[in-house]
Specification:
- The protein has 368 residues and is an alpha/beta fold.
- The chain folds into 2 domains: 7-126 and 301-317, Rossmann fold, CATH 3.40.50; 132-261, 2-Layer Sandwich (Dihydrodipicolinate Reductase, domain 2), CATH 3.30.360.
- The protein contains 12 helices and 15 strands.
- The protein has helices spanning 16-26, 44-52, 61-65, 82-91, 106-119, 133-143, 170-173, 177-192, 295-299, 301-312, 322-341, 359-362, and strands spanning 7-12, 32-38, 56-58, 72-75, 95-99, 123-126, 150-158, 198-206, 219-226, 231-237, 245-252, 255-260, 269-271, 287-289, 345-346.
- The strands form 3 sheets. A 7-stranded mixed beta sheet has the order 12-11-7-10-9-8-15. Strands 3-2-1-4-5-6 form a 6-stranded parallel beta sheet, sandwiched between helices.
- Helix 4 links the parallel strand 4 and strand 5.
- Helix 5 packs antiparallel against helix 11 and helix 8 packs across helix 11.
- The radius of gyration is 20 Å and the shape is globular.
- The N and C termini lie far apart (50 Å).
Length: 368
């Protein structure tokens, strides 16, 4: 593999998140060259390759991993496949960018981390909220003392449901909205507060709107208590009509700030007739809408992928690794257990025999 020039990347996946990866790489030609894409669905890889100008097309990701010049792979596949794909990629000598959540179980997470360590490759955890410009500014101000002692951080992400069908299938996803989006909030609150130890998790969840298509929860509230006395509140929903609500709030004894990812960089627009695209998860473009510009940059995706490429070249130290994803996985476990028990759950929390995090909601593990 080369030690100079753009990092050669292979993308595993061909749907919504893979599109984000490809579009993010497209604006980073000095850092990244997307050399290949792999997707098992007939025709998907070919269409994806034509759309993004990717020269090599595979229906079996393992054949793509055999390509000697590919240095890094990004995994944008269902959660149940993350561990197997990561292990295969690491054993092929490829650095790995794995989408959130890291995996289905803590045992899988440990295997992924250990395999990458043993093979001498990076396991990079794709948590874009670490790179979101507004959130970085809020953290900078907090770290400079603008708010005094921060005692509460809130992260909210709500819309009417995910893009791909597999999210609704708990066998492939491992859970509902908490698994899908709660992982963002867990990582964000922990990172924003300086990665303090997590003491307890309290979670409430239910299925209110989408019971016809999923056994997973479609609305969730989670409260995390940190060792430094601060709390994180995470609100997630697949049951919110009217488009995406994506924001944070930070409260300290000496100040407060908030950031709305969509409203602060949008054009308040009214249209009787509609138009092409407004923003992710917008159900319509008629009436009042808030179309955004530079959407991926405002989320932080290109910045995240640039950082990962520079980590492969040894130019930066990883800010989001498999260890971050493993911690998030443990909090996901605790959150589902808490919702099942109707009580707080203390960390560390590592029950045996878990197949899917959501099972801890339906049948909480016995605690000593």
């Amino acid at each position: 593999m080369s030690t100079k020039g753009p990092v050669k990347v292979g993308i595993i996946g061909s749907q919504f998140e893979a599109d984000i990866h490809a579009e993010s790489f497209r604006v980073l030609p000095e850092e990244v060259e997307v050399a290949a894409v792999a997707s098992p669905t007939p025709g998907n890889a070919e269409r994806f390759g034509r759309k993004h100008g990717i020269p090599r097309i595979f229906t079996d990701y393992r054949r793509m991993l055999a390509e000697p010049d590919i240095e890094m792979v990004t995994i944008a596949a269902p959660n149940a496949l993350h561990a197997r794909m990561t292990v295969d990629a690491a054993n092929a000598g490829k650095h790995v960018v794995c989408e959130k959540p890291l995996c289905m179980t803590l045992e899988e997470g440990d295997l992924m981390i250990e395999t990458c360590r043993r093979q001498g490759v990076l396991l990079l955890y794709a948590e874009e909220l670490y790179f979101t410009p507004k959130y970085l500014k809020a953290k900078q101000m907090a770290d400079e003392g603008a708010f005094g002692k921060v005692y509460l951080v809130k992260q909210t992400e709500k819309h009417f449901g995910p893009h791909a069908p597999w999210f609704w299938d708990v066998q492939r996803s491992g859970g509902g909205v908490f698994m899908d989006m709660g992982c963002h909030g867990i990582a964000f609150c922990w990172w924003f507060l300086g990665r303090p130890r997590i003491k307890e998790v309290l979670c409430h969840m239910g299925t209110y709107v989408h019971g016809d298509k999923t056994q997973g929860e479609d609305d969730c509230v989670c409260i995390i208590e940190f060792e430094n006395g601060a709390k994180g509140i995470i609100e997630d929903s697949w049951a919110r009509r009217g488009g995406m609500d994506d924001r944070i709030e930070v409260y300290g004894e000496g100040g407060v700030t908030c950031a709305d990812l969509h409203r602060g960089n949008a054009l308040p627009t009214y249209s009787e007739y509609g138009y092409g695209y407004a923003v992710e998860k917008a159900p319509t473009t008629k009436g009042w809408t808030w179309p955004v510009f530079e959407e991926l940059w405002n989320y932080g995706f290109p910045q995240e992928m640039r950082h990962f490429a520079r980590c492969v070249r040894g130019k930066e130290q990883p800010q989001a690794t498999g260890q971050d994803g493993r911690l998030v996985q443990e909090v996901l476990y605790a959150g589902y257990q808490s919702a099942g028990l109707g009580a707080r759950v203390s960390l560390p929390f590592r029950p045996n025999g878990v197949q899917r995090p959501i099972d801890l909601w339906r049948s909480p593990a016995r605690q000593p």
